[in-house]
Amino acid sequence: MTGRARAARRGRLPVVLAVPALIGLAFLIVPLAGLLVRAPWTSLGEQLFSEAVGQALLLSVVCASLATLVCLVLGVPLAWLLARANLPGRGVLRALVTVPLVLPPVVGGVALLLVLGRRGIIGEHLDAWFGISLPFTTAGVVIAEAFVAMPFLVISVEGALRGADPRFEEAAATLGASRWYTFRRVTLPSIAPGLVAGTVLCWARALGEFGATITFAGNFPGKTTTMPLAVYLALETDPGAAIVLSIVLLLLSVVVLVSLRDRWISTPS
Questions:
Q1: Which GO terms describe its molecular function (predicted)?
Q2: Is 32 within the bounds of a domain?
């Protein structure tokens, strides 16, 4: 048997694997294709540029971007702590950080209410001392999205920090650079791909957040109604609008995948 024939035989997928693989592929693709098939193409432009869609889209992008900024400010130092600091119980700390990944978002929203609500552990003091009430506000949307999305950033950045060569940081320290200068000029550039990937994933997760948002921030058009909430609301009154909103979110998800193609969906050479 020639080398080419052996390679072709190795690349041939057994039927026992090919059939469920094709079924699984159809299971993932057909529902998405159904959105395009059932889309109201005749009125797509009118609905796409309607005030309600534009309002929900703008609110979603602004809140997701602000939530991502919060995650960057808090998540990058947290990732550095998990990757570099020699702390007792670091494994337990890492597990706690990743809990929102597996926690039902609605439970996350309830937890936020119990802590930051007007009668919450912290929220009652914010309300009494500063007159700040976070639930059912746009700020509440940002907090709910940040709570759910931050683990994506932390995990990505921590992995990049663990894979970075520490010798460059040691060399910078030997030359007299401060820790903050080394972090800004040496560490961050070395983990830039992981940081960018984590930021994009964090933004995408924040954009698609539903459960924690509707529980903690409610569903008030123009104030807390983001795109996922608008889809839920439109599905009961105007299914066509719900499909249009879903297509917008689908396109944004595709853009995220394309932006991360070299890291997540490229074929190894």
A1: molybdate ion transmembrane transporter activity
A2: no
